[in-house]
Amino acid sequence: MNNPIPPQGNTQPRRSGTGPAIAVALVTSLIAGAGAGYLAGNAAGDANASYVSDALDAKPASNSEPAPEGSVEEVAATVLPAVVSITVEGPRGSAEGSGSIISGDGYVLTNHHVIAEGESGAKIAVTLNDGTTHPATYVASDVNTDVGVLQIEGVQNLPVIRFGDSDELQVGQEVVAVGSPLGFSATVTSGIVSALNRPVRAAQGGGESSLMDGIQTDAAINPGNSGGPLVDMNGNLVGMNSVIASMSSSPQGGAGSIGLGFAIPSNFAQRVAKQLIETGEARQPMLGVQVSIVDPARGATVAGVEPGSPADKAGLKPGDVITRLNDRPIDSADALIAATRSRDFGETVTLQVQSEGSEDSRSVDVTLSSE
Question: Pfam families this protein is in (predicted)?
């Protein structure tokens, strides 16, 4: 007798007696896992709370290491004691600015536009880096160069800033600006020399203006920085911060640093300050020409020549266009004036000159006026 063939197709799986046990075990493990996670979370929370408590209770780490040599920190420590804040109160208004102490008995180098009211008897006060405030006396200032000098009263043995050689500055060189922008005294900013020999004319009020052969810098300079020092990374004064370019169309407000600040070169400021202290007025080397400020020529067009002047003796004529002074290009009347003022009294300079109606140029040697 043949054995029957097992049924095919929808056969039912064999039930295992272990199935419910596995399900129970799985559920148990999930519950156990959740419990373990809760306990672990509590443990981590306790640990984190402990760590936070430790951090908040810990003593601050020391930050008393000496400033690295040549750092902005070291420069600031060197320069700040010799920088002052200046306030001027007069019947026609008030002014604020900064200045550099240039002698132990209180002479301070600053801008004309900061202390100009002092000439009319306005009250001047100077605040030193130690926080003490002293009255100051107006010495002299020059509107054409925007250089001024005052003297702090009743002081002696003050820290003095060192003059550097602005002729040695290089584009890209690091510099630090110090002053009191918007009344915030002892403010330090840093940047680089962005450009050199920038002719910058600034209105001084009353229809007058100053002209500088400016050092351009991107170190932040704001109103109140005027008259303060621009120093190199050795702490030497290489410029006096004076003017900023602004995007603001309002003359009264909204002006602030956009990375275009200008400083009077220290060599020039030092020479003018010495004249102001010794004689009460400033004089500059001269060619003896009047130059047109409206002529569209690419250069400085001679509008007139003073009889007997250095230019007259060198044969310059009205209509001549000066395009270079020594190795410096001249592209405007202001550029010629600024470049001439930057030279020494009695120095012989070489001008590149194009005569009126001619495309050819010639070299002309001119000995500038003596002091």
Answer: PDZ_2, Trypsin_2
pTM of this prediction? 0.83
Domains present along the chain, CATH in parentheses: 72-152 (2.40.10.10), 166-247+256-279 (2.40.10.10), 285-370 (2.30.42.10)
Residues sharing a CB contact under 8 Å with residue 271, sequence separation 6 or more, in sequence order = none
Q: Round to the nearest angstrom and report the end-to-end CA distance of the chain.
A: 144
Active site residue 309: no
6-15, 153-162, 310-319, range with the lowest pLDDT: 6-15
Q: Which of 141, 194, 226, 257 is catalytic?
A: 226
What lies within 8 Å, CB to CB, of 254 at 6+ separation is 246, 248
List the catalytic residue out of 98, 112, 113, 185. Answer: 113
Q: Tell me, yes or no, if 226 is annotated catalytic.
A: yes
Alpha helices in 58-192 (DSSP H): 72-79, 112-115
Q: Model confidence at 46, in pLDDT bands (50, 70, 90)?
A: low
Query: How far apart are the C-alpha atoms of 366 and 352, rounded to whole Å?
Result: 11
Question: What tokens appear for 327 in the block?
Answer: 């190795």
Q: At which residue do the structure tokens 């020059």 appear?
A: 142
- CB 77, CB 188: distance < 8 Å: no
| Count of beta carbons in the 10 Å neighbourhood of residue 254 | 10
113 is catalytic: yes
